[in-house]
Amino acid sequence: MTFIAPTDCPYYLLSRATLVITSALRAGMNEAGVGHVKPSYLGVLWSLWEEEGLKVVELGRRAGLEPSTMTGLLDRMERDGFVTRKADTQDRRVQQVRLTKKGRTAQKSVVDVVDKTLAKALAGISEKELEKLKELLRRVLANAHSENR
Amino acid sequence: MTFIAPTDCPYYLLSRATLVITSALRAGMNEAGVGHVKPSYLGVLWSLWEEEGLKVVELGRRAGLEPSTMTGLLDRMERDGFVTRKADTQDRRVQQVRLTKKGRTAQKSVVDVVDKTLAKALAGISEKELEKLKELLRRVLANAHSENR
DNA sequence: ACACAATACTTCGTATGCGTAATATTCGTA
DNA sequence: TACGAATATTACGCATACGAAGTATTGTGT
User: Fold this and answer.
1) Where are the beta strands (DSSP E) in chain A?
2) C1’ D29 / CA A115, Å
């Protein structure tokens, strides 16, 4: 199969969809007065709201990001006052990442923005269709995963 | 609707799917000996293989990218020898972008890599499912589009 | 106990994208 | 025709991601 028009190419559609939702999230955060929360922070915040004191590698694993990516991401999050790093006393290679008060109290607004933004982005898509979409995307990820070994 | 696990969040799935395919494309290009062709070049090359001498804004429109993004992209493509810019004599604001010989001859290998990479990434997804996926993604783009005005 | 492998994290260079502002040119209208 | 609006491009700062390579620490096999 060869894809001619951009709107016929799944890669184009995926990239664009990701970018427009990222933009919408950024805008939504600004409007809601939590503009310091960048879209990339979400994966980390989500993990830490569940379980605090995770290490860098573990956060990366959960968000699907490389450790080297996490470093810069956590630098920005620390700069913006959402998390702190704390050396682990057991294993001194490890940095424990924990939420600040600001990181904790942001949860409500942030979850709200994400929900509303996704609802808008996915408007007109039924529950069933959404499930199908997610299932297909999971299959793409599974393909990539099995490819790498 | 609130999304708990990453694999339950459409935004996470979309981002990850985009990134893994981008990675796969990069790797595929390298293996095929056209490693200078970066994934971002594809949108521009596609447009120029169709019609040469397009201006920067038009290339951006077709690829879904901002003009300011195009500048850096075209800089890299020029550096890597795929395109040249040429001032338009009619309208001196305009830069005509045209393919070099290298840019033209790359078409066959590049299209080949893209086809094979997408086939692998989308393995196990039927024609019908792929159509559905594309339709849903187009709807997301349409939503974003109508949102912005 | 010691050499070597594995793990955790960071640093650095590069790619990719956006938005804002600056510059140059052209267009439309009074 | 002069002038403000629109258009085309670039410049700059920032966010986000990867991979390769470096550093520190821990684990393992002999």
Assistant:
1) 54-55, 83-87, 95-99
2) 53
Q: Which residues touch strand C (CB under 7 A)?
A: A 15, 19, 23, 55-58, 67-68, 70-72, 74, 85, 88, 91, 93-95; B 38-41, 64-66, 68-69, 72-73, 76, 90-93
Work out the pLDDT band at B4, boundaries 50, 70, 90: low
- Give ∠ CA A32-A33-A37 in degrees, rounded to 5: 95
Rounded Cα–Cα distance for residues A93 and B38 (Å) = 35
CA–CA separation, A121 and A25 (whole Å)? 10
pLDDT in tens, A53-111: 999 999 999 999 999 999 999 999 999 999 999 999 999 999 999 999 999 999 999 99
* Residues with Cβ within 8 Å of residue A98, at least 6 apart in sequence: A48, A52, A53, A83, A84, A86
Report the footprint of strand D: residues with C-beta closer than 7 angstroms: A 38-41, 64-66, 68-69, 72-73, 76, 90-93; B 15, 19, 23, 55-58, 67-68, 70-72, 74, 85, 88, 91, 93-96
Token pair 């494309």 is at which residue?
Answer: B25
Q: How far is B73 from chain A (nearest CA, A)?
A: 16
Angstrom distance, B93 CA to C23 C1': 11
Tens-digit pLDDT profile for residues B35-93: 999 999 999 999 999 999 999 999 999 999 999 999 999 999 999 999 999 999 999 99
Q: In whole angstroms, what separates CA A109 from the centre of its chain?
A: 16
